[in-house]
Amino acid sequence: MRDKLTPKAETALTNLEPRTSRVDETLKNELSKQGIFTTTLQELYNWGRTSSLWPLNFGLACCAIEMIATTMARYDLARFGAEVFRPSPRQADLMIVAGTVTKKMAPQVVRLYNQMPEPKYVISMGACAISGGPFKQGYNVLKGIDRYIPVDVYIPGCPPRPEALIDAFMSLQKKIDAQQLTGENRPRHLNAGEPSEFVVPSFGAHDLEPARNPAVWNAPLVQIAPLGQISQTGNDGTGKN
Ligand code: SF4
Fold first, then answer.
1. Mutation to probe ligand 1, out of 60, 62, 68, 145 (largest number of atoms < 8 A from CB)
2. DSSP 117
3. Residue 162 Cα to ligand 1 middle (Å)
4. Ligand 1 midpoint to CA 200 (Å)
5. pLDDT at res. 145
6. From ligand 1's centre to the CA of 98, what distance in Å?
7. What's the 60 CA to ligand 1 centre distance in angstroms?
8. Residue 199 near residue 207 (C-beta atoms within 8 A)
9. Residue 134 alpha carbon, nearest atom of ligand 1
10. FRET pair for 230, CA 20 to 30 Å: which of 44, 117, 119, 148?
11. What local confidence, expressed as pLDDT, does residue 226 receive?
12. Per-residue pLDDT of the chain (241 residues; tens, 9 = 90+)
């Protein structure tokens, strides 16, 4: 086989680093011209995950109508291999938190997340799911689902249009595609030290207890600036409270 390689492919093959995690692109291109398809386990694994994002079938409020519209003929979410909304968390990869998360519903959302197998992802869709939205000051609304579970992609808007949800899908696919399976930056589900289930809040005397999951969310730092101005810096740099 090697006798039939072009000089360019021969050079690329010679220069290939032993134990490299990625196939040299030049070599890959030259080999593909000769009908040889090469890939790595990491690319194959990431391709499988990006191409089969099956969402959990549930919605919480008006944003869910936009999510439903995304699956219909006009926007056709099936193009992303994601049309198979699953009725069971055991068969789902992706939780789309679409709508207002009331404090009555929050424990159920966290419980459903815990019941999903790894690898699993979360899209927080709309102002309500991100921060409480127009109901932020309400006594009965959670100020963001990221207080209890880790969120991969946030979609702003009230409501976000189907195009925004499709954009979030593509952002999540890019994120998965860039993940390394080994090393410091490997994804959460490949790190044995990272939890895959989080505390389910319950009702205490006055509010949900605990009020947040410190493993995924902490209150932003508040700094008193000169001249009496208050500036806020979020723990993730967003300034969100
Ligand atoms: S963000 Fe707006 S559209 Fe979405 S659930 Fe909240 S109020 Fe409804």
1. 62
2. P
3. 13
4. 24
5. 95
6. 8
7. 9
8. no
9. 7
10. 148
11. 74
12. 445 656 665 665 555 444 445 667 888 888 888 888 888 888 889 999 999 899 999 999 999 999 999 999 999 999 988 878 999 999 999 999 999 999 999 999 999 999 999 999 999 999 999 999 999 988 999 999 999 999 999 999 999 999 999 999 999 999 999 988 888 888 888 888 888 899 999 998 889 999 999 888 888 777 777 766 655 555 554 444 4
Atom of ligand 1 at shortest range from CA of 100:
5
Q: Rounded distance, CA 175 to CA 188, Å?
A: 13
The two tokens of residue 63 are 């944003």
232 CA → ligand 1 middle, Å: 25
Predicted pLDDT of residue 241: 45
Answer whether 0.90 is exceeded by the pTM: no
Residues touching ligand 1 (Cβ under 6 Å) are 61-63, 99-100, 126-128, 133-134, 158-159
Q: How far is the CA of 127 from the centre of ligand 1 (A)?
A: 6
Nearest CA to ligand 1 atom 6: 128
160: helix, coil or strand?
coil
Task: Report long-range pairs for 212-217 (Cβ below 8 Å, ≥24 apart).
Answer: 212/147, 212/148, 213/147, 213/148, 213/149, 216/146, 216/147, 216/148, 216/149, 216/150, 217/144, 217/146, 217/147, 217/148
Which positions ≥6 away from 227 have C-beta within 8 Å? none
- Residue 95's SS3 state is strand
Q: Tokens standing for 231?
A: 């500036």
